[in-house]
């Protein structure tokens, strides 16, 4: 695969019905993985965004080229975060790639943008850009 920019961080993203799994595969220790589910409306904290908040955010260091490897476990999904200009299909048995770069700290929201079934609209994505020092903590 030809790449224009070498990534400083690689994250594997797997779409499931009806949640996302993330794995920081190049951080040593055999990788760090976790699942990210929507926060039910009844459990939202004050100021939380309904249908967009998740229990585990994808934390990314700012000013780092990030490569996401995207696939699916069951049906077609689409990993889409418009503010980061990322929209990549998640297809079972295939591995797609996208790159992005976050310039400043912030929280970026997205959702599955493929009609993947009855609960397709309940697969939010939350990417939080933090300083390198906070990321390492």
- List the strand order in the largest sheet: 3-2-1-5-8
Total count of strands: 10
* Major β-sheet profile: 5 strands, mixed
What percent of residues adopt helix (DSSP H or I)?
A: under 10%
Low-confidence stretches: none
Number of helices: 1
Which series of helices and strands comes N to C?
Answer: EEEEEEEEEEH
Helix- and strand-based class? mainly beta
Rg (CA only): 14 Å
The overall pLDDT, averaged over residues, is 92
Approximate shape: globular
Residues in β-strands, percent: 35-45%
- Terminal CA distance reads 32 Å
Description:
This protein is mostly beta strands and 137 residues long. 4% of the residues lie in helices and 45% in strands. The chain has a 5-stranded mixed sheet with strand order 3-2-1-5-8, with no helix packed on it. It has a 5-stranded mixed sheet with strand order 4-10-9-6-7. A hairpin with a 2-residue loop joins strand 1 and strand 2.
């Amino acid at each position: 695969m030809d790449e224009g920019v070498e990534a400083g961080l690689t994250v594997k993203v797997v779409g499931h019905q009806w949640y996302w799994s993330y794995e920081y595969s190049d951080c040593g220790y055999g990788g760090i993985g976790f699942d990210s589910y929507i926060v039910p409306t009844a459990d939202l904290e004050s100021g939380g965004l309904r249908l967009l908040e998740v229990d585990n955010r994808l934390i990314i260091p700012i000013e780092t080229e990030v490569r996401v490897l995207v696939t699916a476990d069951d049906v077609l999904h689409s990993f889409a975060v418009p503010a980061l200009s990322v929209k990549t299909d998640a297809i079972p048995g295939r591995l797609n790639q996208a790159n992005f770069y976050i310039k400043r700290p912030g929280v970026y929201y997205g959702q599955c943008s493929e009609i993947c079934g009855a609960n397709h609209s309940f697969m939010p994505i939350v990417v939080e850009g933090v300083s390198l020092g906070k990321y390492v903590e």
